[in-house]
């Protein structure tokens, strides 16, 4: 027997709903590009149009494990985001600013 999540959610306690919401928010903090694009409600074709490239190029980009920072920045910006690079150390995190001008008209 299948149930809609909304029906199950109505039966959950407020504490359970809060735990689920927190787990979802944590999961959304670390996503591969494909899942990030999907979560933003974009198709590869829509993203390709925003980037001015062909859809197969988006598919190829999403499969890559290594790419230029400027390529990643343009991909993120086409989804409406902003790329920030942060180094994490035991003592704390540091935002790396060397790349802030890449992919912008300041080049």
Describe the overall structure.
- This protein is mainly α and 107 residues long.
- It folds into two domains: 1-30; 42-107, 434 Repressor (Amino-terminal Domain), CATH 1.10.260.
- Helix content is 51%, strand content 9%.
- The protein has a two-stranded antiparallel ribbon with strand order 1-2.
- Strand 1 (85-89) and strand 2 form a beta hairpin.
- Helix 4 (44-51) crosses helix 5 (55-63).
- The longest helix has 14 residues, at 14-27.
- Mean pLDDT is 84; it is low at 103-107.
The CATH topology of the largest domain is 434 Repressor (Amino-terminal Domain)
Query: What is the CATH C level class of the largest domain, in words?
Result: Mainly Alpha
Strand share of the residues?
A: 5-15%
The number of helices is 6
Strand order of the largest sheet: 1-2
Mean pLDDT: 84
Shape: flat
Domain tally: 2
Rounded to an integer, what's the Rg over CA atoms?
18 Å
Q: Which spans of ≥5 residues are poorly predicted at pLDDT below 50?
A: 103-107
DSSP strand count: 2
Binned, the helix content reads 40-55%
Give me the secondary-structure category: mainly alpha
Q: What is the helix/strand order? A: HHHHHHEE
**How is the main sheet built?**
2 strands, antiparallel
Q: What is the correct CATH architecture of the largest domain?
A: Orthogonal Bundle
- First-to-last CA distance: 58 Å
